[in-house]
Amino acid sequence: MSQSSAPMMPSPNSMKKKIVTAIAAVVIGHAGVLWAVSNMKTPELKPVEKDPIKVRFVKIVEKKPEPPKPKPEPKKEPPKPKEVKIVDKPLPPPPKKVEKVEQVKKKDAPKPTVKPVQNVPITPVASTVVSETKVVRVEPTPPAPVTPPPAPPAPPAPPAPKSVSIGNGVSWVKAPNVQFDEGELKASCSVEVAISASAEGKIESATVKNSTCGAAVNRKVTAAVKRARLSKYIDNGVATPTRVDQPFNFKLK
Q1: Spatial separation of the C-alpha atoms in residues 224 and 221, rounded to whole Å
Q2: Which of 16, 78, 109, 212 is 20–30 Å from 100 (CA)?
Q3: Are the beta carbons of 205 and 225 closer than 8 angstroms?
Q4: pLDDT under 70: residue ranges of the chain
Q5: Secondary structure (DSSP) of 151-191
Q6: What is the pLDDT at residue 42?
Q7: What backbone phi and psi angles, to 5 degrees, belong to 91?
Q8: CB-based contact 242:163 (threshold 8 Å)
């Protein structure tokens, strides 16, 4: 009998050597590639010259929608000419000859003869008497006088103004503001103004009573008082007009 020979299995050491050799070859190959790449010169790139881009802005105008055009009116057909029939009229007959007829004057008729009037008996005429009628005028009786309606009662008289003073009955709601220009007030002076106010406190009049100032200062003071306003004065629950004497003292610095 012949003996069959079994295949020889490689040893584990030889397998390790082969693997290590393959890995070393791969590493060396990569190292060579990296060295070659690192020593390569980078190609110089030439700059590309380009023309500048021109930008043009265009304004877009929105067109407004045109209004609808009016519909054309239908053309009216011209009226057809009426047919006129021409009728031949016969010519008028020629005028007849008029023969002159001689008029024969008639003989004058005989005038009637007037016979004399014989005596005719006179018939008596009856006399008529006209009686007068008197017309009596009856005057109408006058109507009775109409008594007028009673007059409405007169409104109550406004209350008489009360003499009061500032701080005792009334006060300034809007005080008078007197301002002078430079050089207008030449010396220290005083003015006393008599004021009349309505029941609502409105200044109705301002009159200078006593003054040591000039006319220009007096006018400024009265004008300022008329622009001011007093409070209401209540007397027994009724707003009453007032009279107030207000002094003004001006000192020149």
Answers
A1: 5
A2: 109
A3: no
A4: 1-11, 41-51, 61-63, 74, 78-140
A5: PPPPPPPPPPPEE-EETBEE-EEE-------TTT--S-EEE
A6: 66
A7: -70, 145
A8: yes
Query: What's the pLDDT score for residue 150?
Result: 81
Report yes or no: 162 and 170 within 8 Å, Cβ to Cβ.
no
Rounded CA separation 185/178 (Å)? 11
Tell me, what's the pLDDT at 108? 52
Strands 229-230 and 242-250: unpaired
8 Å CB contact between 220 and 142: no
Q: What element of type H or E holds 15? A: helix 12-39
Instruction: Name which of 241, 236, 243 is nearest 157 in CA terms.
Output: 241
Kindly tell me the sign of the dihedral angle through the C-alpha atoms of 163, 167, 170, 174.
Answer: positive
167's torsion region: left (phi>0), alpha (psi -120 to 50) or beta? left
In angstroms, the CA 8 to CA 1 distance is 22
Task: Please report, as a single letter, which amino acid is at residue 52.
Answer: P
Round to whole Å and give the CA distance between 243 and 198. Answer: 9
**What six digits make up the tokens of 32?**
């060579």
Residue 162 near residue 242 (C-beta atoms within 8 A): yes
Q: What is the pLDDT of residues 178-231, one digit of tens each?
A: 888 888 888 899 999 999 999 899 999 999 989 999 898 999 999 999 999 999
Helix (H, G, I), strand (E, B) or coil at 235: strand
User: Which residue carries 């009728």 as its tokens?
Assistant: 87
Q: CA triplet 100, 103, 108: central angle to 5 degrees?
A: 175
Q: Could you tell me how many residues make up the chain?
A: 253
